[in-house]
Design goal:
There is one protein chain. The chain is mainly α. It has 2 domains: about 30-225, no CATH class; about 225-735, Cytochrome c oxidase-like, subunit I domain (Cytochrome C Oxidase, Chain A, Up-down Bundle). It is built from 26 helices and 6 strands. The strands form 2 sheets. The protein has a 4-stranded mixed β-sheet. β1 and β2 form a beta hairpin. The mean pLDDT is about 90.
Length: about 750
């Protein structure tokens, strides 16, 4: 396929995919579970308002939101899914009340026939839609309001300071007095009510709930829909078809032009002042990795000791919701910083000179990144500790959405910083593009990926403080999937190809064509694959159909990872001087491994609708998250840093034993962390979810079982090995860049 045709294919894939993505975004706006203007009883008495529900959502966000349990399956994994938990408690209250009234005994002591009859009554009672669109009024019965008050009492005790719930609070890693006022507590439970109501209430004219019958709970009638089964089957067919086509096309079109220069083209490359200024970015990256891993250790320990750290009462100062927030956010920060720094190094290297004020721009961006990192972390602490009102929390505190927790003010600063970075990338590259050299196509693609990184983080500005949760989730996944999982991938592919061309190992033409081809294939499934995150977030059925189909196609390019890994390995052996680049290339090889295992296998395990129906919000998700985020993007970030450092310190002998030890401890530690702990716990939870329901799979009763606890503790082995790897990485970078050595 010619380069022109590849560019046309690229434009068509991007244009059509985003047209579909945006169209169904409008459908989500129109068909999202409605937030009623008022909730009344059957007599018309006002119980609470839509503003109370929205305030309750803000309060839930202020304490950490998705970092303290989940809602609709999205969030953290120690505490319950509050929608599943609320529904189960509501159901048990009603069944107990009716059983005592009708039979004079507890529900569990009834005959199977009587229990079945009672459960049928419960389903009819809960699933009927009593929302009046014309008046914006949701009418609920007095019995359902009683259940609400019953649940409110439980949650008030849990989130405040009821001594009777100390054990449960510790099991869920919820700090005492997380909520500090009765008024805030009531509003947050009102939000829980609404989110749970959407899970069990059938859409108008349908027998399926707003969340496609999620969470699974047969007692309330939440069972898999026919659409779930249908589109799961279709997704598997598309996967097999896509793999077949992919292999055929790849075999016919793959162009490899491996060259063997006798000496390193980078040996005598000019290193400009702005390129040297990038070095401090790598110091910060290494510091952030260490802090992130330390926070990960504390966060993981909260799963077995929810009120402290080996007897030290740290929860009152740094609760689980904070440690997890910082752990995830720092991962995004250091990975993004490593990639941004690599770009800042590469761009001026093309011409060997800096545009005017380039070094100043690099230094200003560095300061801006420090401000965003420090400011957002501090703001999140103040938010979670309830030191901010709801408006200030939204702007400067904790937004409560996983991966985009930072307050809106810090979000805006980060967007400004990303566009400053984009400008610093464009200025040295644009003159070279204008010259029309052979590198033009690859450089254009490089700038497109840079622009996408700057632009698509901006999707995080598309929701407001009171936006419907279904709509906010739509835009949040633009950031998490399209930014982190999508255009980061494109950037990575382009940068890797570009590095090999600069080293004289790949021809420009074949590199450009291969990158274009890989980008087209990846984005074909990657853009619309965003929808697989939205199956159960109050979206129309078409979203599930598209998500199932295209998320299956996301896996297709990954079957060729082995070819790519072999190709990189072969290039590493192409000539003698490449031994100096052994470890940067080995980190790229590990990216291929984790791309296949973490993004491919572990990703596809949870992607099909029927699988995700039972797995959403279980430990199978962090299996994919850890293996993909650190395994792919983290390892790539480290690999890029090593490439740059090899170029900077070309004549300095590396400590190969130290970096070898780092490589193997990071990879082995991550693998053990996943297979010895997260995966077994996730699979056990899945069985519980299928048999009993999501509420049970996430309950303290299940998660505190001795066998589950054993698997939790086994994580220490992988975590320790991994942590040692981060320490040796830090030492390697320190000795190379700061310690006085002879060069």
């Amino acid at each position: 396929m010619t380069q022109k045709k590849l560019w046309i294919a690229f434009a068509l894939v991007v244009g059509l995919s985003f047209a579909v993505l945006l169209y169904f975004g409008t459908q989500i706006y129109q068909q999202a579970p409605p937030v009623p203007q008022k909730v009344t009883n059957e007599g018309g008495e006002l119980l609470f308002t839509g503003n109370d529900i929205k305030d309750g959502q803000n309060i839930w966000q202020s304490i950490g939101g998705q970092e303290i349990g989940t809602v609709w399956g999205h969030g953290a994994y120690v505490a319950p899914d509050w929608t599943a938990d609320y529904l189960h408690r509501e159901a048990q209250y009603l069944l107990s009340k009716w059983s005592q009234a009708d039979y004079g005994k507890e529900f569990n002591t009834l005959s199977s026939a009587d229990r079945a009859s009672m459960e049928s009554r419960l389903q009819e009672f809960l699933r009927v839609n009593t929302y009046d669109k014309a008046t914006g009024t949701l009418t609920i019965s007095s019995e359902r309001y009683e259940a609400f008050l019953h649940n409110k009492e439980h949650y008030a005790g849990l989130f405040m300071d009821d001594p009777a719930l100390d054990k449960l609070r510790a099991d869920y890693a919820i700090a005492k007095n997380t909520i500090k006022s009765e008024e805030r507590m009531e509003k947050m439970v009102q939000f829980f009510f609404w989110a749970s109501w959407a899970c069990v209430t059938e859409r108008p004219g349908s027998d399926v709930t707003y969340t496609h019958n999620w969470p699974p709970d047969e007692q309330i009638g939440n069972v898999p829909t026919s659409d779930l089964v249908l589109w799961t089957g279709f997704s598997i067919i598309m996967l097999l078809l896509g793999i077949g086509i992919m292999i055929f096309v790849q075999a016919r079109t793959r162009q490899e032009e491996t060259l063997r220069p006798m000496e390193d083209p980078l040996m005598n490359q000019t290193i400009t002042p702005s390129m040297w200024a990038v070095k401090k970015y790598f110091w910060i990256v290494n510091l952030l990795i260490l802090v992130q891993v330390l926070l990960g250790v504390i966060t993981a320990h909260y799963g077995v000791e929810g009120d402290g750290f080996y007897g030290i009462d740290i929860a009152k100062f740094i609760p689980y919701s904070i440690t997890r927030t910082w752990h995830i956010q720092l991962a995004i920060f250091w990975i993004a910083t490593a990639w941004l720094a690599t770009g800042l190094y590469i761009a001026p290297s093309l011409s060997g000179k800096d545009p005017k004020f380039q070094k100043l721009g690099v230094n200003l961006l560095f300061i801006a990144l420090l401000i965003v990192v420090a400011g957002s972390l501090i703001g999140q602490w103040f938010g979670v500790m309830q030191r901010l009102d709801l408006v200030n929390n939204f702007w400067f505190g904790h937004q409560g959405y996983e991966y985009v927790d930072l307050g809106r003010f810090w979000q805006i600063l980060l967007v400004v910083g990303l566009f400053l970075w984009l400008a610093l990338m464009i200025r040295p590259i644009l003159p070279i593009i204008k010259k029309g050299t052979s590198e033009k196509g690859l450089l254009i693609l490089f700038l497109i990926s840079c622009a996408a990184i700057a632009l698509f983080y901006g999707a995080g500005l598309m929701w407001g403080r009171t936006t419907n949760l279904a709509v906010a989730e739509y835009w949040r996944w633009w950031v998490v999937h399209l930014w982190v999982e999508g255009f980061f991938e494109v950037f990575a592919t382009v940068v890797a190809a570009f590095l090999f061309t600069r080293m004289g190992l790949l021809g420009i033409k074949s590199a450009t064509n291969n990158v274009l081809f890989a980008t087209v294939i990846f984005l074909t499934g990657g853009i619309l694959g965003t929808f697989h995150h939205l199956y159960f977030t109050g979206t129309p059925t078409a979203v599930m159909a598209l998500g199932a189909t295209f998320s299956a196609l996301e896996v297709v390019p990954l079957v060729l990872i082995g070819f790519e890994a072999y190709h990189n390995y072969r290039m590493s052996k192409a000539t003698e001087w490449l031994k100096d680049y052994k470890w940067p290339i080995y980190f790229l090889l590990s990216v291929s491994f984790w791309n296949f295992l973490g993004a491919g296998i572990f990703g596809f395990i949870i992607n099909p609708p029927i699988a995700l129906y039972y797995m959403q919000g279980l430990n199978t998700t962090p299996v994919h998250g850890h293996a993909a985020l650190f395994g792919v993007y983290g390892m790539l970030g480290i690999g890029l840093i090593l490439f740059v450092l090899r170029s900077m310190y070309r004549r300095r002998k590396w400590n190969d034993k130290l970096i070898s030890f780092t490589f193997w401890t990071l990879n082995i530690g991550l693998l053990l962390m996943v297979v010895l702990s997260l995966l077994p716990v996730g699979l056990m939870q899945t069985v519980a979810s299928v048999k009993e329901g999501m509420w049970y799979a996430r309950s303290a009763e299940f998660m505190q079982q001795p066998l589950v606890s054993v698997f939790k503790w086994l994580r220490i082995l992988g975590d320790t090995i991994f942590a040692i790897g981060t320490l040796t990485l830090f030492w390697f970078v320190y000795t190379l860049t700061l310690k006085k050595n002879k060069q």
